[in-house]
C-alpha cells in the first residue's frame, strides 16, 4: 500500500478511467486532488469518496493559469508525490475534414497541457527529489486507426515525451511512466463502438481475451506505476489491452 502521507493529482479524475483511478487511490489512503472542467462531476465524486478526495475546477487549456493552480495546490496540500495525466479528448472525423483548428484543439488538450502541468508539478517534485508521473496513452499510438488522426498523433507524442522525461528526470528522483489502455468499457468507447458495428467486431475479434477491459484494470496499472512497488520502473509504457496488440 502507498503511504497515507502521499498526495496525488489526477487530471480528468471524475469520469471514466480517471474516476476509477481516483477511487483506487482514495481507497489506499492517498489524498487525491482531481482537476477537471466539470465542477458538478467533481463535486459529486468528492462527496461520494470522502475527505481524501478533493478537487480544483479548472480548464487545463488555459495554460497561463497552470503555474498558479499548482502553486495553490502545493500551499493547500503539500508537494504532490504523484501526477496522473489522464485528461484528454477524442475526435472521430475523416482525415480530409479535419481542420487546422480541430487538430490544434486536440493537440492543446491532450499534449500541450500535459507538458505544461507536468513541468509545473515537477518543479516542486525536484525540491524533495522524489515523485512519480504516470501519463495515459492509447492503442491509437501503436495502430493506424482511421478517423482519429489528431488523437493518434497526441498519444504517440505522449509516449515519446514519457521516454524523454524519464531519461532527464529519473536522476533527480522522479520516475515517469505511461499506461496504454486497449479498448476499455467507458462511456466514450461505448459511444464510439456501439455506433460502428464493424469497428466493434474488429476490436473483439482480435482481442484474445474476447472482451473489453474495465476502468479498474487501468486504475490498477496506474496505481502500480505510482507506488513504491515500481520504484525501479521508469520510462516504460505498460500496455493493458487483453492481448489486443498481439492478437491476430
Summarize the structure.
The chain has helices at residues 16-27, 39-49, 66-77, 100-128, 149-169, 187-194, 197-205, 215-226; strands at 7-11, 31-36, 53-57, 82-85, 131-136, 174-181, 237-240. It is α/β, with parallel strands linked by helices and 248 residues long.
Proportion of β residues?
A: 15-25%
Number of alpha- plus pi-helical segments = 8
Task: Tell me the total number of β-strands.
Answer: 7
- CATH superfamily placement: NAD(P)-binding Rossmann-like Domain
Strand order of the largest sheet: 3-2-1-4-5-6-7
The total tally of domains equals 1
What structural category arises from helix and sheet content?
A: alpha/beta
In the predicted model, the low-confidence regions spanning at least 5 consecutive residues are none
Describe the protein's architecture and organization.
- The mean pLDDT is 94.
- The chain has helices spanning 16-27, 39-49, 66-77, 100-128, 149-169, 187-194, 197-205, 215-226; strands at residues 7-11, 31-36, 53-57, 82-85, 131-136, 174-181, 237-240.
- It starts with 6 loop residues before the first strand and ends in an 8-residue tail after the last strand.
- The protein has 248 residues and is an alpha/beta fold.
- Helix 4 (100-128) packs parallel to helix 5.
- The chain has a single domain, classed as NAD(P)-binding Rossmann-like Domain (Rossmann fold, 3-Layer(aba) Sandwich).
- It has a seven-stranded parallel beta sheet, sandwiched between helices.
- Helix 2 (39-49) links the parallel strand 2 and strand 3.
- It has eight helices and seven strands.
